[in-house]
């Protein structure tokens, strides 16, 4: 679990994973979505993504949707707790931005 | 067509770079055969190679889950050796790095340093043990093959030096990343 969780700020990877998982998605689709959203600025490596997904699932900020057939890929989706955390982060970022712009 | 090459690397990153250079020439690494690197022909630059040290050996269930995730992401596990795995992904799928943020890279280098510390301890123990035995022969406390134990001393000293150097280099990387992290948490 990245330390920055405790400080309240989400890492960029976690932020974009939570954002993407407002609809159920498998790992590779998350990577592609994040790359598209940031116009290629944030490209998540599969190892980084896997580590983040595992931590998020342990924290129950996201849930794993097991496929009916074993050959299908696992999908992930944000939980109620995850949505709350995500909303709090949006509020925090809004405060940051407005303080920064009012300089 | 298959081709094999004998090569010895002290440095993981250099090995990875070499595998990618071979891939650029149209020789795709397919695994080890009798401690030689085996390659098959491919289109030049068809694959990007990345190596990683896993927390648990590849057969362990947690590593299996990870390898499954990698496979689902278009990443093929070509070979494994101890805790070390060799991945490749088609270059036309875009940039391929396993770890892309400071936290996960830090964890990877901590893992690497941990795996060098263990052999360093084992060989330090072997070195001390054989040095004591050889000394006891030289001093005439016991009879035995002094040269054999001196040979083992030199052998364990060399392996110890390699393990220690590898551990140091991984620790340096960890320190470097920790510094960077403190600025950009």
List the helices and strands and how they pair.
The complex is a heterodimer of chains A (103) and B (185).
Chain A: H1 12-20, E1 25-26, H2 27-37, H3 46-58, E2 62-65, E3 75-78, H4 80-101
Antiparallel strand pairs in A: 1-3, 2-3
Chain B: E1 2-5, H1 12-24, E2 27-33, E3 36-41, E4 47-53, H2 61-72, E5 76-81, E6 84-90, H3 102-138, H4 146-184
Helix pairs in contact in B: 3-4
Please characterize this protein's 3D structure.
The complex is a heterodimer of chains A (103) and B (185). Chain A is mainly α and 103 residues long. Helices cover 53% and strands 10% of the residues of chain A. Chain A has helices at 12-20, 27-37, 46-58, 80-101; strands at residues 25-26, 62-65, 75-78. In chain A, strands 1-3-2 form a 3-stranded antiparallel β-sheet. The model of chain A has no long low-confidence stretch (mean pLDDT 90). Chain B is of the alpha+beta class. Chain B has 4 helices and 6 strands, in the order βαβββαββαα. Chain B has helices spanning 12-24, 61-72, 102-138, 146-184; strands at 2-5, 27-33, 36-41, 47-53, 76-81, 84-90. In chain B, β2 (27-33) and β3 (36-41) form a beta hairpin. In chain B, α3 (102-138) packs antiparallel against α4. The radius of gyration of chain B is 21 Å and the shape is globular. The interface between A and B is medium-sized, with 25 and 21 residues.
Which properties best describe this structure?
heterodimer, A: about 100 residues, mainly alpha, Arc Repressor Mutant, subunit A, 3 strands, about 55% helix, B: alpha+beta, 3-stranded antiparallel β-sheet, about 20% strand, globular
How would you briefly describe this protein structure?
The complex is a heterodimer of chains A (103) and B (185). Chain A is mostly helical.
The low-pLDDT segments of chain A are none
Helicity level of chain A: 40-55%
Radius of gyration of chain B: 21 Å
Mean pLDDT of chain A: 90
- Count, helices of chain A: 4
Distance between termini of chain B? 48 Å
Alpha plus pi helix count of chain B: 4
Strands of the biggest beta sheet of chain B: in what spatial order?
A: 1-3-2
Whole-number average pLDDT of chain B?
A: 91
Beta-strand content estimate of chain B: 15-25%
């Amino acid at each position: 679990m990245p330390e920055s969780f405790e400080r309240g700020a989400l890492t960029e990877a976690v932020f974009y994973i939570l954002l993407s998982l407002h609809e159920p998605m498998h790992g590779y689709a998350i990577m592609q979505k994040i790359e598209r959203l940031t116009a290629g600025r944030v490209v998540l490596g599969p190892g980084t993504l896997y580590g983040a997904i595992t931590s998020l699932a342990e924290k129950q900020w996201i849930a794993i949707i097991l496929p009916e057939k074993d050959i299908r890929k696992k999908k992930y989706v944000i939980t109620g707790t995850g949505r709350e955390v995500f909303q709090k982060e949006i509020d925090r970022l809004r405060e940051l931005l407005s303080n920064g712009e009012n300089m | 067509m298959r081709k094999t090459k004998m090569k010895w690397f002290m440095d993981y990153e250099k090995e990875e770079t070499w595998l990618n250079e071979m891939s650029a020439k149209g020789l795709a690494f397919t695994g080890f055969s009798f401690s030689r690197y085996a390659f098959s022909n491919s289109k030049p630059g068809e694959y990007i190679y990345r190596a990683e040290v896993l927390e648990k050996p590849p057969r362990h269930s947690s590593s299996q889950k990870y390898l499954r995730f990698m496979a689902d992401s278009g990443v093929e596990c070509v070979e494994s050796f101890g805790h070390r795995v060799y991945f490749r992904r088609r270059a036309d799928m875009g940039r391929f790095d396993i770890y892309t943020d400071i936290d996960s890279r830090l964890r990877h280098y901590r893992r690497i340093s941990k795996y060098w510390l263990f052999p360093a301890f084992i060989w330090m123990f072997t070195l001390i043990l054989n040095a004591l035995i050889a000394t006891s022969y030289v001093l005439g406390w016991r009879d035995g093959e002094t040269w054999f134990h001196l040979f083992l001393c030199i052998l364990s000293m060399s392996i110890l030096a390699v393990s220690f150097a590898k551990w140091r280099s991984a620790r340096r990387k960890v320190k470097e990343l920790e510094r960077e992290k403190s600025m950009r948490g």
